[in-house]
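A.,

Following up on our hallway conversation. C-alpha cells first:
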C-alpha cells in the first residue's frame, strides 16, 4: 500500500539557540539525511540570522509538501523583538512558546502527522510563567493526557531509555518514586514500543535506584519497597519486565542486547548512557500521547549558536523517527 507523503510540524525552539540552525541545515541535507517533508514554525529572523537559504513563508500548511523541494516551508511566528544568536530574551521565550503551541496544534488537528520540537531553554520559559517541567508535560496537557501516563523516551540506534522521574531536583527523587508511578511509566513505554516501533512483545529492563541495586537492602531499600513490587505487578499483567538491575552494568553492549528499552529511576541515569553512546543522533520521543511528538536529544547550545557549528543529525533523526512512528500508527493503529 502506498501512503501519501506525511507532513510534520517542526517548532524552531528558542530563536537564540541552535534550533533554527539545525532545522535549516536539516532542510539543506534533506536528501542525504533522508528527511521527509516538514513545515517549520517559528521566528523568520532567527533563520535568516544564521542561514541564507530559501525560505517559503506560507499561510497554509497544506502548501508545505509541494514547497518543500524548493525552500524551507515556514509558518511565521515573529518574535516581538529580534534576538541575537546566543543571547536569549524574554521576547524569544514567548516566541518559542507560541511556536510550540502552533506546532503541537497542527499535529493535534491532524493537519500534520506529528510534531518535532526544537530546543527551548527551560529557565527562560519558567521566567515567563511556563508551569510545566518541560515540553513533554506541556504537550501531554494539550493532548489531555496526565503527565504521569506519558514516558520520555531517549532513543538511539542501540539503546532506548526512559526516566521514571524527569526534571526535578535529585534530592526529591527518592520521595517521588512509587510503585504506581513506575508501573505507569513502564506501561506507557511498553505500549509505546508496540505502537511506534512495531515490537509485538517488548522487553523492558528496569534499573535499580541505589548502588548495586541496593545490595539486598544494605545500600538502600527503594528496590525492595518500591521497584520490586512494581515489577511483580507488571509481570502479573503479562509484560516481559526484568530487574531491578544495578545501573552501572546495564548499558554495556551485551546487556543492551537483552532488552528493547531500559526504565531508569531518574533523568541522568537514563540520559547519560544515551548521550554517551548516541549524542549525535539521539531522539527524545514522548510515548503515551494520541499524537507523535519527537525532539532532538540536545538543548539550545547557546554557547555555539550563530557560529555555524551546530550538528543537525539529531534533528534529522528526530524528524525521521517521528515520520516512522506516524507510519506505524497509520498502518497498525
Ligand atoms: N528538548 C529540549 O528542549 C531540551 C532543552 N534543553 C535546554 O537547553 C539548555 C542548555 O542545556 P545544556 O545542558 O547546556 O545542553 P545542550 O545540549 O544545549 O549543550 C550541551 C553541549 O553540547 C553542545 N551541543 C549541543 N547540541 C549540539 C549540536 N547539535 N551540535 C553541536 N554541539 C552541540 C553544546 O554546544 C554544549 O557544549 C537548558 O536550558 C535546557 O533546559 C536541554 C535538553 C533538551
Ligand atoms: N533532558 C531532556 C529534556 O530536557 C527534554 O525536555 P522536554 O522535551 O520535556 O522539554
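Then the amino acids I'd put at each of the 333 positions:
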Amino acid at each position: 500500500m502506498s501512503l501519501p507523503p506525511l507532513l510534520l510540524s517542526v517548532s524552531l525552539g528558542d530563536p537564540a539557540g541552535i534550533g533554527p540552525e539545525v532545522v535549516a541545515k536539516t532542510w539543506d541535507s534533506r536528501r542525504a539525511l533522508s528527511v521527509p517533508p516538514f513545515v517549520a514554525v517559528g521566528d523568520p529572523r532567527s533563520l535568516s540570522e544564521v542561514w541564507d537559504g530559501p525560505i517559503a513563508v506560507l499561510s497554509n500548511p497544506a502548501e508545505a509538501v509541494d514547497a518543500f523541494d524548493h525552500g524551507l516551508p515556514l509558518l511565521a511566528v515573529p518574535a516581538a523583538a529580534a534576538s541575537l544568536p546566543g543571547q536569549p530574551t524574554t521576547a524569544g521565550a514567548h516566541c518559542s512558546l507560541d511556536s510550540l503551541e502552533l506546532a503541537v496544534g497542527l499535529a493535534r488537528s491532524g493537519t500534520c502527522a506529528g510534531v518535532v520540537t526544537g530546543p527551548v531553554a527551560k529557565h527562560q520559559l519558567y521566567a515567563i510563567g511556563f508551569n510545566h517541567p518541560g515540553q513533554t508535560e506541556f504537550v501531554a496537557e494539550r493532548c489531555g493526557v496526565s503527565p504521569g501516563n506519558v514516558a520520555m523516551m531517549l532513543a538511539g540506534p542501540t539503546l532506548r531509555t526512559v526516566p521514571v522521574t524527569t526534571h526535578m531536583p535529585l534530592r526529591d527523587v527518592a520521595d517521588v518514586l512509587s510503585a504506581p508511578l513506575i508501573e505507569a511509566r513502564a506501561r506507557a513505554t511498553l505500549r509505546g514500543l508496540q505502537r511506534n516501533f512495531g515490537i509485538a512483545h517488548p522487553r523492558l529492563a528496569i534499573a535499580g535506584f541505589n548502588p548495586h541495586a541496593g545490595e539486598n537492602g544494605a545500600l538502600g531499600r527503594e528496590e525492595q519497597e518500591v521497584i520490586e513490587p512494581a515489577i511483580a505487578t507488571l509481570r502479573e499483567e503479562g509484560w516481559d519486565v526484568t530487574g531491578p538491575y544495578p545501573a552501572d552494568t546495564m548499558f554495556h553492549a551485551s546487556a543492551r542486547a537483552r532488552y528493547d528499552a531500559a526504565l531508569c529511576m531518574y533523568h541522568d541515569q537514563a540520559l547519560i548512557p544515551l548521550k554517551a553512546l548516541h549524542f549525535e543522533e539521539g531522539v527524545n520521543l514522548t510515548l503515551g500521547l494520541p499524537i507523535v511528538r519527537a525532539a532532538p536529544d540536545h538543548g539550545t547550545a547557546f554557547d555555539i549558536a550563530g557560529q555555524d557549528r551546530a550538528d543537525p543529525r539529531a534533528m534529522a533523526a528526530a524528524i525521521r523517527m517521528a515520520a516512522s512512528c506516524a507510519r506505524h500508527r497509520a498502518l497498525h493503529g
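Residues 50 and 308 are 7 Å apart (CA to CA). Curious whether your intuition agrees with the design.

B.
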